[in-house]
Amino acid sequence: MRHRPHPVPRARARRAPLRTHRPQRHPDRCRPRLHAPRPARPHRRPGRHRRHRSRPPRRSRHHPHRRLHLHRHLRPPRILKKFRELRPRVHIHLATGQTEDIIDSLLAGDFHVAVTRLAQHPEIQSLHLYNDDLALVVPPDHPFAEKGRVSIAEAGRQPFLFFERGSSYHSLVYSMFLRAGVVPESVMELDDMETTKHMVEAGLGVAILPVVSFERERERGTLARVEIREMEQPAQLEVGVHILRNRILAPPIHEFLRILTREFGVENTFQAAAAARA
Fold first, then answer.
1. How far apart are alpha carbons 265 and 177 in whole angstroms?
2. Is residue 200 located within the same domain as residue 215?
3. At a CB cut-off of 8 Å and minimum separation 6, what does 119 contact?
């Protein structure tokens, strides 16, 4: 038997290393990198980019001429009931606030009618409706509640609750005391008439408020009315209706002004001014 030599294995061809799109890094540069934590970003609403300008507030789905602004001390149910009978499809928006804020909203175009304390402004046309009597309001267990009438000097010695300083109502009440030579003792300043009534009920002080604003509390016996004598002039608050001057008003607004002026027995000068412009 013939011996065959063992076959010599052929040398395999050395393949070139596969190259990827990512170049190889130096071994010294393959160390993990430590990144500093990113600072927390301020909260942003979804769908808004920080470079985008802020959008204007979304307007109501109701037409702007259907928004009516009435002050808190006016009792609107009877007037609005008549208005709803004539315009049942009109949506009414009622809001409350201080006279300064109401006038600013009227000038900004947020509302087309404002019923509040009579104010003067070159861009606003005003009409006087009535005078609201002011009276001293005390808790039912206060010593003044039994008297029913006190002097302005006696009222000034009581802890007084005022509206916030700078408001027209604060100036009105404070000037009533200064004209009589009395400096009242202010213990608290508030920005809302309802809150003021609650503070008086709690016995934290006394206040001067429109009579119509605390009729319900007086009937329930939670507040008492006290007259102030020795006043240079009657304690009254002039209430009026305000609209923007030289503006064309929608028919529902004219209808509301007609009902409002007829309810208080005053002449509707707004209608005459609109006819003159036409």
1. 32
2. yes
3. 99, 103, 126, 168, 240, 242
Cα(35)–Cα(37) distance, rounded to whole angstroms? 6
Q: How far is CA 265 from CA 128, 232, 262, in A?
A: 11, 28, 5
Give the span between the Cα atoms of 259 and 265, in whole angstroms: 10
- Mean pLDDT over each residue of the chain, to the nearest integer: 76
Q: Give the structural domain span for 148.
A: 132-236
Indicate whether 229 and 247 sit together in one domain.
no
75-92: pLDDT as tens digits: 567 888 999 999 988 888
Could you tell me if 249 and 268 lie in one domain? yes
Number of domains in the chain: 2
The CATH number of residue 182's host domain is: 3.40.190.10
Using CB atoms within 10 A of its CB, is residue 277 exposed (0-12), middle (13-18) or buried (19+)? exposed
Enter the tokens of residue 207: 């206040």
Whether residue 202 is found in the same domain as residue 254: no
pLDDT at residue 203 above 50?
Answer: yes
Q: Are 83 and 255 in contact (CB under 8 A)?
A: yes
Of 165, 161, 189, 179, the closest CA to residue 235 belongs to 179
Residues 86 and 169 in one domain: no
- Per residue in 5-52, pLDDT tens? 556 555 555 555 555 455 555 555 545 454 445 555 544 444 444 444
Collapsed DSSP state (helix, strand, coil) of residue 186? strand
Taking residues 162-177, report their average pLDDT: 81
Query: 């979804």: which residue's tokens?
Result: 46
Of residues 230 and 107, which shows the higher confidence score? 107
Same domain, 173 and 162: yes
